[in-house]
Each structure stands twice: as structure tokens, then as C-alpha cells.
Amino acid sequence: MAIKKSDLYASLWASCDELRGGMDASQYKDDVLFMLFIKYISDKCANSIDFAPSVGDSVILRLTEGDPAFFGYLLNTPAVARKKASLGQGDAVVHIRAAALGGIEVLVPPDGEEQTAVATVLSDMDAELADLSARLAKTRAIKQGMMQELLTGRTRLLDLEATTA
């Protein structure tokens, strides 16, 4: 079933209105125009190796092969972050040319399955670290509560020597 262009526009506009929520349309249009601009640039330069559109502190790369999660981890390792920082220009806002970014060499497992396995292990480790951090926060809260009870005198410790005598 073919959809009419007017129906598509109406549906897209309704979706945008729903996403906008209570935001004033005059403010929302700036966000939409920016996203459309990035999409336009990305489409126009899709086949260019020397271009990577950036949004804020992110760079949008089009992977033709490989595991995206693996490359996400790889490109944020301390060694690669140091290389990226050394290529940056500017003080308040650091700019890195796409050609310079493309010149960073990294070791990559050639097998996509191995990349996926590495990304899975790293993701599992991130989840474990998040669990441990939550457990540490809970333990610190319990300790804080115990300190409050003991230091305010609401809870008293028993003298074990006096009770056994």
C-alpha cells in the first residue's frame, strides 16, 4: 500500500509535536533544523573518507564492517583518547579534522565474531562495575546510619566483659 506524501508529512509533524511536549515551537524548530542539517551533511558526504560529521563531543562514523560496540570501547581507551587529544586544536572548543582522526592507528581483531566477543566481555564488566558501585554506595549508607546511631547515643554497645562476669 502506497502512502501519500501529505499523509507522511502529517504523521511526521504529529510525531514532532508529541516529542516537543511543552516546549515552545520557536525553540523546538532550532533543534529540528540542526538535526536536519546534520542529516543533510551526513547524506551528502556519505562516501567521503575525509569527513565525519560531529555533534557536540561525539563523532558520527559510518562503519562498513566490524562491531559498533567494540569500536565504541576501542575509541575511548586511554591510549586512543591521548592520541585524539594531541590532534585537537582550540582552547574552549577543541576541533579535530576528520583526516587527522582517520590517521589514528589502532589494532583491531580482523574477525567480527572476536570483536563482538570482546565488546560483550567489556559490556559485562561495565555491568558488574555498576553493580559493585551500587553495592558500595549501599554499604556506605549503612555505615553512615550506624555511625549516626552510635554517635548520637541512640544505640549503645554492650560491654562484653561485664556481661560474662
In short:
The chain has 165 residues and is mainly α. The chain is built from seven helices and two strands; from the N terminus they run ααββααααα.
Q: Can you describe this structure?
A:
The chain is mainly α and 165 residues long. The protein has 2 domains: 1-44, no CATH class; 61-155, no CATH class. Helices cover 63% and strands 2% of the residues. It has 7 helices and 2 strands. It has a two-stranded antiparallel ribbon with strand order 1-2. Helix 3 crosses helix 6. The longest helix is centred in the last third of the chain and has 41 residues, at 112-152. The protein is extended and about 85 Å long. Residues 53-57 have low confidence and may be disordered.
What are the SSEs and their pairings?
Layout: H1 5-20, H2 25-44, E1 54-55, E2 58-59, H3 68-74, H4 78-87, H5 98-102, H6 112-152, H7 160-164
Antiparallel strand pairs: 1-2
Helix pairs in contact: 3-6
Please supply descriptive tags for the structure shown above:
2% strand; extended; 165 residues; mainly alpha; 63% helix; single chain; two-stranded antiparallel ribbon; 2 domains
**Class derived from helix and strand content:** mainly alpha
Which word captures the global form?
Answer: extended
What order do the SSEs take from the amino end to the carboxyl end, as H and E? Answer: HHEEHHHHH
Please give the domain count.
Answer: 2
Give the strand content: under 5%
Strand order within the widest sheet?
A: 1-2
Largest sheet: 2 strands, antiparallel
What is the tally of helical segments?
7
Radius of gyration, CA atoms, in whole angstroms: 27 Å
Mean pLDDT: 75
Ranges with pLDDT <50 over ≥5 residues?
Answer: 53-57
- Topology, number of strands: 2
Q: State the separation between the terminal residues, measured CA to CA.
A: 91 Å
Share of residues in helices = 55-70%
